[in-house]
Amino acid sequence: MDVQGDFVQTIANVGSTMIILLCTFIKVPQIMHIKQKQSAKGIYLQAILLEVSGFTIIALYNYTNQYTLITYLEYPIVLLQVYTMFYYVLKYKSMLHLPRVHICIFIYFSILAAFMTGLLPKVLLSYLMPLCPPLNGFAKITHMYGIIKAANADAVSLTTWIISVSANCARIFTVYVDSADWRLMANFIVSTTLGSGVLTSAIYYKRKTALQQRQEAKTHSHSD
Question: Which of 195, 214, 188, 200 has its CA nearest to residue 71?
Fold first, then answer.
């Protein structure tokens, strides 16, 4: 039984390592797209704020509960990427100079530091964790809404969402093996389900756009 348990744990550790490696560039395609276009059109600031909130709570919850670093390292890594994307979105929406933006950023990092140093009790995070599934859910629903409303997914990176769905799905298994924490597992189940919805929507509208472009090209060739 111990041998079987060690084998399962090894598989979970390998899975965790692969997830972390994949997540080191999960947001990079979206960041590069924003930089190249020098535009944040179609990017919902609300979705980014929801992601930051959810990722921060999960990272702090794992950190303060002293869970194995390998089971949540992707969250600090992804947060750094989301911070970068947030900066460019604020820049291209001409919001960097707003005083309320600087105040909110200061408050955010003050709370972050307070939890990490123990000034705020970690028990608060246990009450905040149940909010993560709806936070992540609303973030993904917002992404989906943007795609469907525009009937266009050109600004969406399929690579980012494929990695996201795969990582969240794998995390259900690794968290179950490491801690079986139902709060974390519920979050990953919701993220996997709704992330699949975003990915499906993006694939549908990318194919639809490609088909329209081919039809237009054929029309022009016939008219010539």
Answer: 188
